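In the current project phase, the collection of sequences with tokenised folds has grown. A representative record is quoted in full directly below:
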Amino acid sequence: MTSRAVAAAAGRNVWIVGGGDLAGQFADAGLLDEVLVSIAPVTLGAGAPLLPRPLELRLEELGRNGDFVSARFAVVR
């Protein structure tokens, strides 16, 4: 599927929405350049990891969208 997605993108950016496992699959294939995270003020107890596998990220930008905080991370290869 990832080779079809790369061909369909034709060099353009693609926004993947679907959670940590999906993002991790693209990261495993070397196709993930950045991660955008929106954080809402909700207490989740112990919480859950953002991604189901280790991935080195570098914070690039912070912003605010109403009651949400948005963070943009670059994937470090």
In short: The longest strand covers residues 57-65. The chain has a mean pLDDT of 82.
